[in-house]
């Protein structure tokens, strides 16, 4: 068996085992270890197993992941963001589908303190879905909107996906964050337009509420938005005011969120330890996959299978349009089944050389990739955001109904992906502007 | 037989072609018996390099020994002694190139304890390249020793942290990848680094004032090879490797020299200030360098139980005048390689070295 | 048997507590460093080294067993759900056999590395301080070994009582990341 054949067989076995519900992280480690053993002998495989797990994890930039997770969990458990939704609903009450639009703004706000899209969906789902159902919104619209709005969480910083991508692709995390912000805001505006259009076309989806409020009353409702605004102000003020670096922002933000929750009387020992426990398990199950992917990279490099696949993709997509279509298709298919971080870590060793070879910007690609991975969070059959909303609404709405509600937004998402592929400047203008 | 070289620089780095040339040279001179594949950042990063070569994940790698303080005390003490170049006040335009020769000569020909140190890591040394001397890149103007006091200064190693403390400023530890943002956002006032770093990490796009002449001191980047692989080669192959390594070290040192000069020109053409540090700061810095050098061997004995440091510092200092003269008029990597071969690599016995 | 199970549960609780403490300590340590540097001109020495070599390593490996107990490790259900029951049972056992094997290798290997690092007293120089980091290498065999023990018991359970682990899907707690 040639080296490349060993590499490709390894990849095949890897996919089969993952499909059969083996633990992804340990499949990656195991297949890479046995693959290296077969390829270059015991010494190299044994050496790699001793070296990579420690070296990959003992990483300063990576430490921002648990800290941003903690910030998100603290905000979630202490209801730091509840006021944001009620303010948004007051201000959007005159719009068709106002509550749905408010939930999108609420998600975008929560996105600024949470690194993940699931957290966003869960937090906003708990607050906004019951409110919409109460106001006779169509359940498909209500649940679908919150499920997709969650995906903004991984685009607007902080973002776990963008941090991991930055560490692996050696791209500045700050630049990625700025690019993500641009696309996150476009996504937010686009989702609002989708809701607006749908309700315009079919007003029965979202009956108008008869809440007439004076301007002063509306301003009054802003009073409960201060906790999250203060956290955001603290993070962005500190970043641009020269107090701390992006890596340190997670820890300072989490401290700030704890302090605010404490002052508001929302902090209990139980909530605090729940947030710490979830941060811990999330970090553990996340990093072990990244360790496995790091070992897989060595296996693909040494076997030559990585080069082989990259070259095959380059040869196939000699035309840039075809190449991009190919990349989009690959991630849409992977996104149907796999969770985003797994599929990102699995594919980066192969896809990064392709992007580099095509002369495309790695910064731009990081943001496009995040957008593609996030679409996977809402596509059937495995759409984690949809499942989280299902968990919130219980028997009230079927999974199929939520997927139907999501479909409209996916059309917009694909349109946006095509747009930012044709005009990469849409991603890069913000990082360029602030340089 | 194919050797693997793990470089910690990305494929786009300016040194990557130097490694590619090394690989080609070895293949040519062994008539294809021995070839080499270069893995730029895909196999091992700088932090993984030592364990990686020790375990044979890669056969060779560039080893940033200061990252492995407990493993390489001698190598690190010798590179910290590079302050002798500034103290000599030498007029050579290329002190780093001279010091690369001095380090390589001492390690390969005249320091059995250094050889043991590398051997304990299951490796053999194939020569040491040095970065240009450290300079000070700042956001604010520093016109006197007084103005540096209390400033937040990034220091990437022990030697420079001691310097920052001696200047009564605040040493800040940050990863080099974060330095650009930290300077831009004002987390840092200054960063200590080499001229090539200004280019490699885009620092010359953000700093306003670049000061030469302090803190000085250089960073080593030796090439090490896995010992079992080395001993498994034939004597002829080892001879070819040694010869080609002289060219590699010369190529790396020269490329860094050129990158540094270019980066400094970019500072000026970017409308920023490039100047010498003020006289009082230079004097204060020199005073620190002298006292630090005097205490160096003692500190390494206290921290790492390392014996014989004094003798090593004396030996490397003694090499300075000869090497400054040797490289003074060098104007290309080929010429430098010839000098390294004549003075060092031709005297290394391929039959016994590292065996 | 009962005694062993109780022992394992106790170890998991300890691991859980240690992991949570790391989250909180990391937050406090980094915040203190930022505050010290910005407002008092005195950063906390060695922060980067302590955070990356200790808190990060601990947080990555110590909670592995806890995550396994909560079924929080990431896997894909999609094809599995559609398989006949006998295949599911076989796959559950095979998964634990595979994971235990990988963990056994990894535990032994990282143990060796920890012994080596202890012998040379591995340390990282940050600023003028030498921060000893050899202790942190022990976090790997401890965390990996604990999860290996848990997976052995799960492997045993899946052989003795095949249906017990069949319906374990996804995390029991609200697991809201990514
Ligand atoms: Na976010
Ligand atoms: Na999906």
TrEMBL record, chain A:
Keyword match Transmembrane helix: yes
Location relative to the cell: Cell inner membrane
Keywords from the named record: Cell inner membrane, Cell membrane, Membrane, Transmembrane, Transmembrane helix, Transport
One cellular component (GO) term of this entry: plasma membrane
Residues passing through the membrane, by range: 12-39, 60-78, 98-120, 141-165, 177-199, 226-244, 279-301, 313-334, 346-369, 375-393, 405-427
Residue ranges constituting the TRAP C4-dicarboxylate transport system permease DctM subunit domain according to the UniProt record: 11-426
Statement: the UniProt record of this protein carries the keyword Transmembrane helix: yes
GO molecular function: transmembrane transporter activity
Membrane topology: Multi-pass membrane protein
Biological function: Part of the tripartite ATP-independent periplasmic (TRAP) transport system.
The protein's name in its UniProt record: TRAP transporter, DctM subunit
Record organism: Lutimaribacter pacificus
Phylogenetic classification of the source organism: Bacteria, Pseudomonadati, Pseudomonadota, Alphaproteobacteria, Rhodobacterales
TrEMBL record, chain C:
Highest taxon of source: Bacteria
Pfam family, one: DctQ
Residue runs in coiled coils: none
Keyword line: Cell inner membrane, Cell membrane, Membrane, Transmembrane, Transmembrane helix, Transport
GO CC term, one of those recorded: plasma membrane
UniProt subcellular location: Cell inner membrane
Keyword ATP-binding: no
GO MF assignments: transmembrane transporter activity
Domain (Tripartite ATP-independent periplasmic transporters DctQ component): residue spans on this chain: 26-155
Transmembrane feature ranges: 14-32, 44-66, 86-108, 137-157
BP GO terms, sorted: C4-dicarboxylate transport
Membrane topology classification: Multi-pass membrane protein
Membership in a protein family: Belongs to the TRAP transporter small permease family.
Subunit structure: The complex comprises the extracytoplasmic solute receptor protein and the two transmembrane proteins.
Its job: Part of the tripartite ATP-independent periplasmic (TRAP) transport system.
Protein known as: TRAP transporter small permease protein
């Amino acid at each position: 068996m040639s080296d490349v054949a060993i590499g490709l067989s390894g990849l095949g076995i890897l996919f089969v085992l993952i499909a059969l519900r083996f633990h992804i992280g340990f499949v990656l480690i195991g297949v890479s270890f046995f693959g290296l053993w077969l390829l270059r002998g015991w010494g190299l495989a044994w050496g790699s197993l001793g070296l990579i797990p420690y070296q990959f994890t003992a990483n300063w930039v990576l430490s921002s992941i648990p800290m941003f997770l903690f910030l998100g969990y603290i905000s979630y458990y202490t209801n730091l963001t509840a006021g944001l939704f009620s303010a948004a609903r007051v201000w959007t009450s005159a719009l068709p589908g106002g509550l749905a639009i408010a939930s999108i703004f609420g998600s975008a706000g929560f996105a600024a303190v949470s690194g993940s899209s699931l957290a966003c969906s869960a937090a906003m789902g708990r607050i906004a879905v019951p409110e919409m159902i109460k106001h006779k919104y169509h359940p498909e619209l209500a649940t679908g909107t919150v499920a997709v709005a969650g995906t903004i969480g991984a685009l607007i910083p902080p973002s776990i996906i963008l941090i991991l991508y930055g560490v692996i692709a050696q791209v500045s995390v700050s630049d990625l964050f700025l690019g993500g912000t641009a696309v996150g805001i476009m996504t937010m505006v686009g989702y609002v337009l989708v809701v607006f259009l749908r309700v315009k076309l079919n007003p029965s989806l979202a009956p108008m509420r008869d809440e007439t409020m004076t301007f002063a009353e509306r301003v009054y409702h802003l009073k409960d938005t201060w906790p999250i605004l203060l956290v955001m102000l603290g993070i962005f003020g500190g970043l641009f005011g020269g107090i701390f670096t992006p890596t340190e922002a997670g820890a300072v933000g989490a401290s700030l969120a704890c302090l605010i929750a404490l002052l508001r009387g929302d902090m209990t020992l139980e909530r605090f330890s729940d947030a710490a426990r979830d941060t811990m398990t999330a970090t553990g199950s996340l990093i072990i996959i990244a360790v496995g992917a790091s070992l897989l990279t060595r296996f693909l490099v040494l076997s030559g299978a990585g080069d082989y696949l990259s070259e095959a993709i380059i040869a196939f997509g000699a035309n840039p349009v075809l190449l991009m279509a190919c990349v989009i298709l690959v991630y849409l298919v992977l996104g149907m089944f796999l969770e985003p971080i797994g599929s990102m870590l699995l594919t980066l060793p192969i896809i990064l050389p392709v992007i580099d070879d095509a002369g495309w910007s790695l910064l731009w690609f990081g943001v496009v990739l995040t957008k593609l991975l996030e679409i996977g969070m809402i596509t059937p059959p495995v759409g984690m955001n949809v499942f989280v909303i299902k968990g919130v609404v219980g028997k009230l709405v079927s999974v199929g109904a939520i997927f139907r509600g999501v479909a409209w937004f996916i059309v917009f998402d694909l349109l946006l992906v095509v747009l930012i592929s044709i005009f990469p400047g849409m991603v890069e203008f913000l990082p360029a502007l602030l340089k | 037989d194919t050797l693997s070289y793990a470089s910690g620089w990305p494929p786009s780095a300016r040194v990557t072609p130097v490694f590619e040339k090394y690989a080609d040279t070895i293949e040519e001179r062994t008539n294809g018996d021995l070839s080499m594949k270069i893995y730029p950042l895909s196999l091992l990063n700088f932090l993984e390099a030592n364990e990686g070569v020790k375990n044979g994940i890669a056969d060779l790698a560039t080893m940033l020994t200061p990252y492995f303080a407990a493993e390489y005390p001698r190598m690190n003490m010798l590179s910290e002694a590079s302050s002798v170049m500034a103290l000599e006040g030498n007029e050579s335009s290329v002190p780093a190139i001279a010091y690369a020769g001095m380090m390589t000569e001492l390690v390969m020909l005249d320091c059995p304890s250094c050889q043991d140190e590398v051997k304990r890591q299951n490796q053999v040394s194939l020569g040491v390249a040095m970065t240009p001397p450290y300079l000070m890149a700042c956001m604010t103007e520093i016109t006197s020793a007084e103005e540096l006091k209390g400033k937040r200064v990034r220091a990437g190693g022990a030697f420079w942290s001691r310097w920052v403390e001696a200047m009564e400023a605040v040493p800040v530890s940050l990863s080099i990848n974060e330095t650009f943002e930290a300077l831009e956002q004002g987390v840092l006032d200054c960063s200590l680094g080499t001229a090539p770093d200004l280019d490699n990490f885009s620092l010359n796009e953000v700093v306003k004032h670049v000061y030469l002449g302090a803190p000085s001191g250089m960073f080593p980047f030796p090439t090490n090879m896995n010992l079992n692989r080395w001993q498994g080669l034939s004597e002829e192959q080892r001879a070819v490797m040694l010869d080609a390594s002289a060219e590699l070290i010369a190529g790396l040192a020269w490329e860094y020299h050129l990158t540094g000069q270019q980066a400094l020109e970019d500072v000026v053409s970017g409308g920023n200030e490039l100047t010498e540090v003020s006289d009082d700061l230079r004097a204060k810095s020199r005073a620190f360098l002298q006292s630090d050098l005097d205490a160096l061997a003692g500190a390494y004995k206290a921290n790492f139980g390392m014996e014989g440091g004094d003798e090593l510092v004396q030996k490397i200092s003694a090499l300075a005048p000869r090497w400054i003269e040797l490289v003074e008029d060098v104007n290309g990597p080929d010429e430098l390689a010839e000098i390294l071969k004549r003075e060092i690599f031709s005297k290394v016995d391929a039959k016994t070295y590292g065996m | 048997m009962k005694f062993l199970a109780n022992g394992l549960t106790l170890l998991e609780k300890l691991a859980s507590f240690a992991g949570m403490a790391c989250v909180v300590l990391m937050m406090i340590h980094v915040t203190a460093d930022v505050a010290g540097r910005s407002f008092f001109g005195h950063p906390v020495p060695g922060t980067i080294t302590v955070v990356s070599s200790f808190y990060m390593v601990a947080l990555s490996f110590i909670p592995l067993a806890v995550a396994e107990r909560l079924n929080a490790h990431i896997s894909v259900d999609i094809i599995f759900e559609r398989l006949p029951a006998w295949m599911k049972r076989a796959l559950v056992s095979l998964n634990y056999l595979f994971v235990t094997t990988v963990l056994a290798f990894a535990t032994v290997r990282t143990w060796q590395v920890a012994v080596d690092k202890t012998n040379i007293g591995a340390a990282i120089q940050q600023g003028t301080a030498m921060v000893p980091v050899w202790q942190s290498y022990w976090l790997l065999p401890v965390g990996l070994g604990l999860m290996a023990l848990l997976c052995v018991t799960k492997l045993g359970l899946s052989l003795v009582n095949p249906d017990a682990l069949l319906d374990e899907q996804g995390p029991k707690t609200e697991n809201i990341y990514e």
